[in-house]
Design a protein that fits this description.
Number of strands: 9
Order of helices and strands: EHEEEHEHEHEHHHHHEEHH
CATH topology: Rossmann fold
Strand order of the largest sheet: 1-9-8-7-6-4-5-3-2
Shape: globular
Number of domains: 1
CATH superfamily: Alpha/Beta hydrolase fold, catalytic domain
CATH architecture: 3-Layer(aba) Sandwich
Distance between the termini: 33 Å
Structural class: alpha/beta
Largest sheet: 9 strands, mixed
Strand content: 15-25%
């Protein structure tokens, strides 16, 4: 069950149209991998599949990788060009960075978009990837026709405000990163999540570089303190949000929010069919006005 901005009839119509288009669309070519050089000379690995406009650029969450978007690449590649990348310090990208700020991660996205010369872009960012996408939109300007936050903005999740609160939140990760990070991630899943999925994501996080991960989380909190919601307001109608509603009792906290019932924080992985249906409608909403300009 989906809640939020889109009217049920509109959602059904858009989703049905998207499915019909997908059935008629040619199969995408095989994925092509490459590397772009970020502003600080870090190599950023990316993967491209599909053709057409717009280019959908998927930005993963904290300690994850471009593999997080497997189900989305398969679904959307028949109709659009799909780009997935590993942010610096993640996946196959370079790890030489010393300060993993949101702005530096955004430069990773910008480097890939520039290398591919994408002219009409929708940035889709999960969790930490949401702030990264918002910053990348600033860097890329009017080439970005939409930013889709995935359980990252207007979630009601309280960010620490005082430095002592930040330090207290991060201390367990500094003391025992693998144990604390794995436990932390397990708490983000919905009640019906596949145990194998939970185990895999928790294990991947526990295996991340602790120095990078703690530094990135500290910078993510600092970014939120500086920019949320001020930067979101500058995005205006370009911003959409797909948020989790694990128990089915949540209310959208902003007009831009659509809720996916039964999903925890990892909506694209837990509920890929439902997530893809909502994103289909969001992309259609964003592309049609852009095409009429």
């Amino acid at each position: 069950m989906l809640k939020g901005k889109l009217h049920p009839y509109t959602t059904t119509l858009l989703a049905t149209t998207a499915l019909l288009l997908a059935a008629c669309a040619p199969k995408p070519t095989a994925p092509v991998t490459g590397a772009a050089v970020s502003a600080d000379n870090i190599a950023i690995k990316y993967e491209v599949v599909g053709k057409g406009e717009p280019t959908l650029v998927f930005v993963h969450c904290w300690t994850c990788s471009r593999a997080s978007w497997d189900a989305q690449a398969t679904h959307f590649a028949p109709r659009y060009r799909i780009v997935r990348l590993d942010l610096a310090g993640h996946g196959e990208s370079g790890r030489e960075r010393t300060n993993y700020t949101i702005e530096a991660f955004a430069a990773d996205v910008t480097a890939v978009v520039n290398k591919l010369d994408a002219r009409q872009v929708i940035l889709v960012g999960h969790s930490m990837g949401g702030p990264v996408a918002a910053e990348a939109a600033k860097q890329l300007g009017d080439r970005v026709i939409g930013v889709v936050g995935v359980d990252t903005f207007y979630t009601g999740f309280p960010m620490p405000k005082e430095q002592k609160q930040v330090d207290a939140m991060l201390k367990p990760f500094a003391d025992d990163f693998a144990g604390s990070a794995g436990k932390f991630m397990r708490g983000f899943f919905g009640p019906g999540a596949d145990p194998a999925l939970v185990d895999r994501i928790a294990a991947n996080t526990a295996a991340a570089d602790p120095k990078m991960a703690v530094n990135a989380m500290r910078n993510m909190i600092a970014w939120s303190q500086r920019n949320d919601p001020a930067l979101l307001e500058t995005l205006g109608p370009r911003l959409r949000n797909i948020n989790a509603d694990p128990k089915g009792d949540a209310k959208p906290l902003h007009a831009s929010v659509t809720l996916v019932t039964g999903a925890g924080h990892f909506i694209p992985q837990e509920k890929p069919v439902e997530f893809n249906r909502v994103l289909d409608g969001v992309v259609t909403e964003l592309v049609v006005p852009a095409g009429n300009k």
